[in-house]
Amino acid sequence: MSEVSRSCFYSMQSIFVASDFLQYATQALYQAYDLAQASCASLTCFHALEKFPAVMREILFPYAALGSDEVEILNEVRSGVETSGRAYLAKVMQGKEEHVRLKVDFSRDSMAKSILHAASECNADLMFAGAYGTKPHTTGIIGSMAATFVAYTRIPFYLIKDPTHRGSHRKILVAFLDPEVSPQLLAWAVSFAMYYPDSDVEIVTPVPDLKRADPHGDYQGFAPAERHIRAATEHVTQRAKLAVQALTVPFMFEAHAGRLSFRQHAPVMPPASAVLTVADEIGADLIVIPSSQPSLNVDNELRETARNITEYANQNCLVIPSAFLV
């Protein structure tokens, strides 16, 4: 594989799609296929089956003496779903299904965590999934499995919120929400943009707004003055400029990187609102955001912000765990 065909920062070797064979998962498969072809990565489409119901075990398995044991029955169920899955791939991929590896397996724990475990077993560099499955689309509520992926993923996770978008990402918005990982997050966003010739990258760095966080004036004496807000805005803008200046790309990508605007936005509002507002204003089709793993600190702000953005965004979201960036 030539260096030109690879991302300039991260070599994609394995891409994983969690699929229920429905609309949003189909769009995830399309996006993953395009990226896999551009990066010469392998592509796995994984379908998780619910645990075999206990009532079915009680009904079927007493008859094992007649020649049907548990393993045979489970294999038969898996084989039937694999047949349906191959028919699905043939229909949606239209002759390109040979580039997709189909894997079907029963859940070991919850379905969402079993899917994350399967992605880890595949050594996936990037995971795709739809925001919704069988439940109707409700603004502000993504599917329970998608929410679990956002909260627990240990690898970059691409969430499909727009089931109609396919093709190049013309406007990628990267959210600087954690100064410790912002430079690495920018590098990842630019690396992702290198796959798409017409792409551009812009940056949003929210400035905290205590006035909006205190609608009743309980902390009136502690609210920052206008000069403090201006100083904070200048600070985050300068920090973004330093991150851009520190960015380096291989020679073959310098022309493309030179065309990226890296326009900086520093709205004075809560982080999630700032990212969502700017994304809509600039017409972004992808938001790149950091997140963090659950921990004893249940009030982790970075994770809560990622959750709010993925729930309310009108755009697809690329969620990158901070542990992956450091």
Structure notes:
This protein is an alpha/beta fold. It folds into 2 domains: 1-164, Rossmann fold (3-Layer(aba) Sandwich), CATH 3.40.50.620; 168-326, Rossmann fold, CATH 3.40.50.620. It is built from 12 helices and 10 strands. It has helices spanning 23-39, 54-60, 70-93, 111-121, 144-152, 182-193, 210-213, 226-245, 254-258, 271-282, 301-312, 322-325; strands at 14-18, 42-49, 101-106, 126-130, 157-160, 172-175, 201-204, 264-265, 286-291, 316-321. The chain has a 10-stranded mixed sheet with strand order 3-2-1-4-5-10-9-6-7-8, with helices on both faces. Helix 4 crosses helix 5 and helix 10 (271-282) packs parallel to helix 11. The longest helix has 24 residues, at 70-93. The radius of gyration is 22 Å and the shape is globular.
* Cross-sheet strand order for the largest sheet: 3-2-1-4-5-10-9-6-7-8
Number of strands: 10
Give the end-to-end Cα distance, rounded to a whole number of Å.
Answer: 27 Å
Instruction: Please report the first level of CATH classification, the CATH class of the largest domain.
Output: Alpha Beta
Kindly estimate the percentage of residues that lie in beta strands according to DSSP: 15-25%
Largest sheet: 10 strands, mixed
Shape: globular
The low-confidence parts are 1-7
CA radius of gyration? 22 Å
H-E string: EHEHHEHEHEEHEHHHEHEHEH
Note the topology.
Elements: E1 14-18, H1 23-39, E2 42-49, H2 54-60, H3 70-93, E3 101-106, H4 111-121, E4 126-130, H5 144-152, E5 157-160, E6 172-175, H6 182-193, E7 201-204, H7 210-213, H8 226-245, H9 254-258, E8 264-265, H10 271-282, E9 286-291, H11 301-312, E10 316-321, H12 322-325
Parallel strand pairs: 1-2, 1-4, 2-3, 4-5, 6-7, 6-9, 7-8, 9-10
Antiparallel strand pairs: 5-10
